[in-house]
Amino acid sequence: MDLKQIAFLGLGNLGTPIAENLLQAGYHLTVWNRTASRAKPLVDLGAKQTENLVDAITPGALVISVLADDAALEEVVSAGFLEKLGSGIHISMSTISPDTSRKLAGLHTAAGSSYVAAPIFARPEAVVAKVGNICISGDAKAREAVKPVLQNFVKGIYDFGEDPGAANVVKLLGNFMIGASIEMMAEAFTVAEKSGIGRQQIYEMLTQTLFAAPIFQNYGRIVANHAYEPVAFRLPLGLKDVNLTLQTATKVNVPMPIADLVRNRFISALAKGRDNLDWGALALGASDDAGM
């Protein structure tokens, strides 16, 4: 199995820097994206480009997909895709429903290939710096085989076993916790602001002491400054993820009242025309409620 030969599908804000890191590490990439022009920086670095995604696949090799949602991924994994992949491995890095991962894993197994769910926790700048973290689950041999590939663009790899949906459960819950943290900081910083305390002041104190963790430091900076552009992760994708989180919780009979609140913040933000802002813009809801 030639894991140096990669078909790379999806060149969005995360896909592009992941692909760049792999090219720099000596992997041979054939890239495909719906908007073909996004491939140019990678072609300039030595990647090949194809207009037909199936043509990107080398039989018995590796496919990495970084696509927006369940529908986009299911559309890509066609009969032609699976036939061309043969005995190869598909690493799916999309944030999708655990059930979609399980369904796709079954289709791969029936076709003689392997599927590894590998959603990543990283904004684009973290991918560039190779400090993100990734969750993996799926076929045991395939998981071990792809770890050396993943190590080229993340710091930590966390293995959640053979259930193909397990990594997606963890990713959804992590994204829910980020959204809840954004809401928490938004409320706190808004109270501070209306009390005559600068948002930046409370951000600096709390994120250097009680909340000295990357999520609070990185997203806190965004919330403190109301800096929702440039966009790393669009607000509608945040709504997609919290909806999937609630669906996953419902299947196991777990109420998530905070997730419901975060979901409503996303819906309100979209209703106000904020769909082209970063998902951190859910924090504007607290300012709206406070008349600011």
- Distance from N terminus to C terminus (CA atoms, Å) equals 58 Å
Q: Taking Cα atoms only, what radius of gyration do you get, to the nearest Å?
A: 20 Å
Q: What is the CATH C level class of the largest domain, in words?
A: Alpha Beta
Strand content: 5-15%
Main sheet properties: 9 strands, mixed
Number of domains as seen in the coordinates: 2
Low-confidence stretches: none
Count of helical segments? 13
Q: Bin the helical content.
A: 40-55%
Structural class, by secondary structure, is alpha/beta
- Second rung of CATH, namely the architecture of the largest domain: 3-Layer(aba) Sandwich
Organism: Dyadobacter helix
Active site: 171
Domain 6-phosphogluconate dehydrogenase NADP-binding: 5-156
Keywords: NAD, Oxidoreductase
Please summarize what this structure is.
By secondary structure, the chain is of the alpha/beta class.
